[in-house]
Amino acid sequence: RQILNISQKFLVNFHDFLLFIFVLLSRLFSDLHLAAELGKTLLERNKELEDSLQQMYINNEEQVQEIEYLSKQLEMLREMNEQHAKVYEQLDVTARELEITNEKLVLESKASQQKIDRLTGTMETLQGQVDSLTTRVEELRTLEELRVHRERKERRKTVHSFPCLKELYCTFWFCCIVRYEDGFLLANPGSVDLAEKRPLDEENDRLRDVVSSLRSAMTAERSKREGAERECAAVLQEFERLEQRLLGAEGCQLRVQELEAELQEMQQLRKSRMCLIGGMEDGLETLLNNGPETDTPEDGAGLEEGSEGAAGEPGAPGQQGGPVRKSCSDTALNAISARDASGRRQGSYAMHANGVRKRGMSILREVDEQYHALLEKYEELLGKCRRHEESLCHYNMAAAGPSMAAAVAAPLTPPQTPSTPEALEGISRQVEQVDKRLSQNTPEYKALFKEIFSRLQKTKSDMNASKSERREKRKTNK
C-alpha cells in the first residue's frame, strides 16, 4: 500500500510535471513563434529603414550637388553683376566725358561764333575806315596838288620880278629833299613853316601804318579768294566727272534695256520650245499606246510630203502667226509617227522606230539642258549689269544731291505701253533691228535647233530610203 500510495503520488506529481513541462513548452513555442515573427518584422523594418536611409543619402547627395551648382551659378551671377556694374560705371564715365566734351564744344562754337561776329564787325569797320581814308587821301592829294601849283606860280612870279632871288632859289632847291610816296608830296622846298610840317609828318606816319595794315588785310583776303577759287575749280572738276559717270550710267541703262529685250525674246523661244517638247512627248506616248494599225502607205506618203514641205524652210515664219520652230518640229514628229504607224506591222521596223524616238528624246533633253545653262548665264550677266547700274545710281545720288538723284532716277522709270500707231511702228522697227542683229550673231540655241531639224530631216530621208527599198523588194517578190 505504501508503495501504491507512493506510486500514486509519484504518478500524480509526474502528471503535474508533465503538464507543467507541456505548458512551459507550449509557452516557449508560442514565444519563439512570436519572437520569430517579431524578428521578421524587425528585419523588414530594418530593411525599409536602410532603404529609406539610402534614399535619404542619395537625396542628400543630389541636394548637395544642386546646392553646389546653385552656389557656382550664384557666384557666376555675382561676377556678371560686378562686370555689368563696371560696364555701367564705365558707361557713366564715358557719358560724363561726352557731356563735358559736348559742353566744351558748345562753348567753343559759341566763342568761335562770337569771334566770327567780331571779325566781321572789325572787317566792316576796317572797310569803312579804308573807304574814308581813301576819300581823305584823295582830298589831301588834290589839296596838295593845288597848293604846290599855287606856290609854283608864286615862285615864278617872284623869280621873274626879282632876278637876285634866282640864285637863292637854286641853292635852296639843291639843299632840300623832295620825297614822293604813295602819290603825294611829303616834303617841298616851298614849305616855309616848320610848325605846320610836323603834324603833317605825324599824319603821314599814321597813314602809313594804316596803309600797311590795309595791305596785310588785302593779302589775307587775296589768299582767301585764291583758296575759294581752288575749291570752286575742284568742285567743277568733280561735277564734270559726275556728268561723265552719268553718261556712262545712261549707256548702262540702254544696255540693260537691250538685254531685257533679248531676255523677253529668249523667254518666248523657251515657251515655244516647252510647248514643242510637251507636244512631242504627248505625241510619242499616244503613238506608243494607241497607235493606228490600219494606216495606209498613201496616208504615210501624204504626211511625209507635208512634213517635207514644212521642214524644208525651218527659218521661215508661219502664215498663221505661230512660232516657226514649233510648226517644223510638229510636222517632223507627225512624219515620224506616220512612219511608225505604217511600219508597226513589222517587228524589226518597230524596234528601229523605238530607237529613233529614244534618240530624238535624248537630243531634246540635251538641248533642254544646254538651253537652261545658257539662260542661267544670261540671268547672271543681267543681274551683274543691274547691280552695277544700281551701285552707279546710288553713288551718283549720294555725290550729286537730290537734283542729280532725280536726273538719274528719271531714265530708270519703266516705259509706258505704246498706244499711238507711230509708237507701234517704232516698236516694230526696233523688233526688226533686233531680229537682224540676232540673225547676224546667231546664238548657240539657234544652232542647236538647226542641228535638231537637220537630224530629223536625215532620219526622215533614211526612213524614206528604207521604205522605198522594202517596196522594191515586195514588188520583186510578187
Folded structure, characterized:
Residues 295-307 have a biased composition (Acidic residues). It comes from Sphaeramia orbicularis (orbiculate cardinalfish). This is Cerebellar degeneration-related protein 2-like. Keywords: Coiled coil. Residues 285-328, 459-478 are annotated as: Disordered. The protein is mostly helical. The chain has 2 domains: 123-241; 243-415 and 422-477. 88% of the residues lie in helices and 1% in strands. The protein has 8 helices and 2 strands. It has a two-stranded antiparallel ribbon. β1 (180-181) and β2 form a beta hairpin. The longest helix is centred in the first third of the chain and has 160 residues, at 2-161. It is flat and about 215 Å long. The N and C termini lie far apart (161 Å).
